[in-house]
Amino acid sequence: MERRPFGILPNGKQAFLYTISGGALTAEISDFGATLVRLYVPDRQGVLADVVLGFDDANDYLASTTYFGATVGRNANRIRGASFSLGGETVQLTPNENGHSHHSGPDSYAFRLWQIERQEKNKIVFSLHSPHKDQGFPGNADIRVTYALEETNTLCITYEAVSDRDTVFNLTNHSYFNLAGHQRPELAMGQTLQLQAAYFTPSDAQGVPTGELRSVAGTPMDFRVPKVVGQDIDEDYESLRLQAGYDHNFRIDGNPCAVLCDPVSGRKMEITTDCPGIHCYCGNFFWDEQGKDGVIYCHRGGIALETQCFPDAVHQPKWPQPIVKAGTHYRSQTKYTFR
Ligand code: BGC
C-alpha cells in the first residue's frame, strides 16, 4: 500500500496520502476529508498534469474554507436558517454562514479523518461513522466513499450510507478543476464548459435558492452549447451580481451533465451522475490562495463542479429530496471521464 504522511492534525493524529492508478490516471487521496488532493491526467500528447486544486498538508485544508477536493457531507451546500423539519421534528444544525448551514457546518466531514476500509491498485474505500445528532442530523450513520480509477480514464466516486433513523444524505466531491494543470490558474476561465441543463436555481444575496427554477435561455447562465467559462461571468445579470460570478446549481437534464475542455492542452472531462443537480462555482471568493507546490491560486483559478441535490431542497417540497429513510441504503455515483 503506497501511502505517505500528510500532516499531523491538532489532535495529534497523523493524516496520510494514498496513491491509486488506473488507465492513464493517477490520483492521490487523503484520509483527511476523504479528499482528492492530486489527479494526474494526460493531454493530447500524453503529457501528465495535475488538474485539481489542493494543498500540501492536511492542516492547510483545516485552515481553509475552499473545500478543495473534499468529501462534503452529510449535506452539501446550504440549508436556510440551519434548520428544517423532518418527520414532525425540527432538525437544528450549527449555522456557519449568515445564519445558514453551509456544507453541514463547522464540523463538516471534509475536516475529519476517515478510516481506510480497503485499498487496491486502482481503488480506495474510506468509511466514516457519524453518530446520531452529529452536526445536528438525526440517525447513527455509516458512510462509505469509494474512489476508483477505471481503464477508460475514468475517476468514479461512489457514496454509500445507511442510518438507523430518517435523515439527509447528500454528499458531494468539492474538487476544483483546471484542465490546463493546477499550476496555471490564470488559464482556468479560458476553458469551455457545456452543461446539459435548461434550468438553474437563482439564489438570494446569501447564496440560498429562492425556490424558483429559471430557464437559462437568453441569459449568461446558458451553457447548453459549449462556452468559455469566463466569457459572460461578469455580465450585468442579477444572479451573477449577487454571487459575484457563477456559484449556482443547475438542474441536470441528461448525461454527460457537464463537459469541460481545455483548448490548449486538449484535455477534456465529461461528468456523468445520478444526482439531480450540479453546482458550478468558479472560485469567486478566493484571492491568491497558497496552494500545492508553491502555486498561488488567483481569483477564479479553478472550476468546482459539484454533483448534488439542489441546495436547500429540504425547504422546497417540489424538488428532489435528499431525505433517506431509516435502514434504506443510499448510493450515489459520479464519474469523471477524461478524453
Ligand atoms: C459554494 C461557494 C463557496 C465554496 C467554498 C461552494 O460550494 O457554493 O459559495 O464559496 O463552496 O466554500
Model description:
The protein has helices at 58-62, 238-243; strands at residues 3-8, 14-22, 25-30, 35-42, 48-50, 71-72, 78-79, 83-86, 89-92, 101-102, 115-120, 123-130, 141-150, 154-163, 167-168, 172-173, 176-177, 192-195, 199-201, 214-215, 227-228, 247-251, 258-261, 268-273, 277-281, 289-290, 296-297, 303-308, 323-324, 330-338. With 339 residues, it is mainly beta. It has a single domain (2-338), classed as Beta-galactosidase, Chain A, domain 5, CATH 2.70.98.10. The strands form 8 sheets. The chain has a 9-stranded antiparallel β-sheet with strand order 11-12-13-14-30-24-23-18-21, with no helix packed on it. A 6-stranded antiparallel β-sheet has the order 17-28-25-22-19-20, with no helix packed on it. Strands 1-2-3-4-5 form a 5-stranded antiparallel β-sheet, with no helix packed on it. A hairpin with a 3-residue loop joins strand 13 (141-150) and strand 14. It is globular and about 55 Å long. The two termini are 28 Å apart. Beta-D-glucopyranose is lined by residues 65-67, 207, 247, 279, 281, 285, 306.
Layout of SSEs?
Elements: E1 3-8, E2 14-22, E3 25-30, E4 35-42, E5 48-50, H1 58-62, E6 71-72, E7 78-79, E8 83-86, E9 89-92, E10 101-102, E11 115-120, E12 123-130, E13 141-150, E14 154-163, E15 167-168, E16 172-173, E17 176-177, E18 192-195, E19 199-201, E20 214-215, E21 227-228, H2 238-243, E22 247-251, E23 258-261, E24 268-273, E25 277-281, E26 289-290, E27 296-297, E28 303-308, E29 323-324, E30 330-338
Antiparallel strand pairs: 1-2, 2-3, 3-4, 4-5, 6-16, 7-10, 8-9, 11-12, 12-13, 13-14, 14-30, 15-29, 17-28, 18-21, 18-23, 19-20, 19-22, 22-25, 23-24, 24-30, 25-28, 26-27
Bound molecules: beta-D-glucopyranose.
